[in-house]
Q: What sequence folds into this?
């Protein structure tokens, strides 16, 4: 291990207990790029394992019988926030932390909700946020292109309709998520609605992320993993042409040259 790798590894409990990425980063005092680069290098050496949880979880790779149940501190309750006020902090977390947690190296994010009266293809055709990414894997030939949509909902608008909106987006995307603002103070009251959302999302392959604090990755948790699909190429092409600006489309074209 390098000195940085050893320093990060030493911050992870030796008994297999999970700890969040934000907590380790705070202890180290490192910037975001340095932390994720070193963390992913240790994972590649099969010395750390990951799990879903608020902020993303890591633990040392040891015998399963010795691994502890994830212990994560509960974030503080947050006041109600309008959906349109969630876009900016959510987008910031997606581009600073989420893309690194997912190990995406080349990506582009667009807040598609803010397009005014621009025609984008009909009802439920416009997600709130879209991430496009190109990935290369060591043992898989070619370059792999993904379009990932996100439907954001405030705590006052959480119901299964969000899943159906995301499902409409997936007709022209490889993955689709709903992102739900669930302050701790409201979690109990939202339990029934969330259970319905999770059930419907699993049926249709839609991912679900809940977050306590929209601008803090330590308050994020992926509760349902999305299924990847290959949409019709023409539909995908039209979706990108309708949703993205010319400069962003040109950036995508450069990825394939």
A:
């Amino acid at each position: 291990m390098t000195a940085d790798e050893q320093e990060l590894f030493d911050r992870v409990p030796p008994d297999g207990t999970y700890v969040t990425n934000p907590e380790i980063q705070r202890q180290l005092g490192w910037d975001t790029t340095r932390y994720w680069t070193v963390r992913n290098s240790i994972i590649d050496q099969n010395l750390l394992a990951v799990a879903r949880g608020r902020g993303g979880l890591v633990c040392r790779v040891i015998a399963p019988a010795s691994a502890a149940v994830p212990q994560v501190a509960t974030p503080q309750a947050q006041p109600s926030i309008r959906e349109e006020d969630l876009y900016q902090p959510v987008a910031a977390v997606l581009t600073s932390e989420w893309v690194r947690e997912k190990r995406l190296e080349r990506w582009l994010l667009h807040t598609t909700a803010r397009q005014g009266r621009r025609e984008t293809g009909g009802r439920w055709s416009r997600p709130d946020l879209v991430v496009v990414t190109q990935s290369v894997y060591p043992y898989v030939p070619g370059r792999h292109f993904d379009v990932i949509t996100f439907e954001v909902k405030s705590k006052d608008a959480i119901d299964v309709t969000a899943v159906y909106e995301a499902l409409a987006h997936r007709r022209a995307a490889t993955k689709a998520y709903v992102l739900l603002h669930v302050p701790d103070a409201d979690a109990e009251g939202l339990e029934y609605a969330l259970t319905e959302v999770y059930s419907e999302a699993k049926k249709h392959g839609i991912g679900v992320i809940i977050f306590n604090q929209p601008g803090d990755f330590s308050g994020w948790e992926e509760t349902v993993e999305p299924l990847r699909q290959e949409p019709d190429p023409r539909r995908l092409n039209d979706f990108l042409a309708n949703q993205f600006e010319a400069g962003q489309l040109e950036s995508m074209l450069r990825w394939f040259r």
